[in-house]
Amino acid sequence: MITTVLVALAAAAPVPADAYGVATQISRWGPRPAAGEREARAHRLIRRVFRRAELRVGEQEFRVPGRGRSRNVIGVYDTKRSCLRIVMAHTDTTPFGPGANDNASGVGVVASLAGRLKLIKPWCDVWLVATGAEERLYTGSPDHLGALALARRARSRGGRRRLQWALSLDEVGRDRPFWLRSPPSAPRTGVEGVLLRAAQRAGARVSWVRDDGTGNSDHREFELLGLPGMKLGVGSGGEPCRHTPCDRPERLDPVSLRVARQIVERALQSTDR
Ligand SMILES: [Zn+2]
C-alpha cells in the first residue's frame, strides 16, 4: 500500500523543463559517470522532457568498454527543409563531482529548448541531444563516445549534405562572456559566424577562441569526421571546479543559462549559412 502511494507520488512528481530546474535537479543527484545509474536517470528525465515537447524521441545505445552501456537521447524536430542543425550536451560526469556546470548546465539548456521549438520556428530540422560518455578521463577512450556515435549517425543520415553545424553546449552555467571554440584556424561564416551573429542579436558577448588541438568536447568527433562542429562554453575564467566536488548546483547562474538559450534560439531561427 505504502509502496503504491510512493510510486504514484513519484509518477506525479513534476518534471522541470526550464534550464535551471533541470540543471539543478540532475546535479543534486550526485556524480553521473558514463554507463552508470545516475547517467541513465538523467537521460530518462530528458526523454520525458522531449516527449512532453512532442519531439520524435530516439535513443542510440553504445558500448563503453569496461564500463557497460550508455546512450544518446535524441529529440527530433522536423521542418519542411532538409537542412539540419544539432544542439547537444553531455550528460555524464567524472566520479569526482556532481557536474553542475560540467555539464548539467548544457543539458538544462538543451531541455529548455525542447518546449520552445514550436514557438521559435527553427529554419532547419533540429536534433536536440543529451549525449552520454563524454568524459574521457573516466571512460579512458580517446574519443567522446556518445558524440562519436552521434556524428556517425548524422553522417549516415545525409550529414555531409544536410548538416550545417553541430553545437556542443558545455559549461554554460556561469562565467560569461562565453567562449565559442572550434578547431579551424578562423571562424567559418556558416558555422561559428552564425553563432556569433546570433549572440549579437541576443545582446550577448561571445568570443571565438581556437581549440587547443582537436578540442575537448562533443563537437570534436564531428570535426574529425569532416562535419562542422563547435562548442559554446566557459569563458576566460575557466572552470576551477571542473571534475571536483565543488562543481555544485549552488554555483549555477540562471542568467547564464538563459543567455545561452537565447543565443541558441537565434541561431536555430537564423536563415544564414
Ligand atoms: Zn564537459
Explain what you see.
- This protein is an alpha/beta fold and 273 residues long.
- The chain has 11 helices and 8 strands.
- It has an 8-stranded mixed β-sheet with strand order 1-2-4-3-5-8-6-7, with helices on both faces.
- A hairpin with a 3-residue loop joins strand 1 and strand 2.
- Helix 2 crosses helix 4, helix 4 packs across helix 11 and helix 9 packs across helix 11.
- 49% of the residues are buried.
- The model has no long low-confidence stretch (mean pLDDT 95).
- Bound molecules: zinc ion.
- Zinc ion binds next to helix 4.
How would you summarize this macromolecular structure in one to three sentences?
This protein has helices spanning 2-12, 19-28, 37-52, 100-114, 117-120, 136-139, 145-156, 159-162, 192-201, 219-224, 254-269, and strands at residues 56-64, 68-77, 84-90, 125-131, 163-170, 178-182, 206-210, 229-233.
| Radius of gyration using CA atoms only | 17 Å
**Strand numbers in spatial order across the main sheet:** 1-2-4-3-5-8-6-7
The small-molecule ligands in this entry are:
zinc ion
N-to-C SSE series?
HHHEEEHHEHHHEEHEHEH
Largest sheet: 8 strands, mixed
Count of runs of 4 or more consecutive helical residues:
11
Please give the alpha-carbon distance between the first and last residues. 58 Å
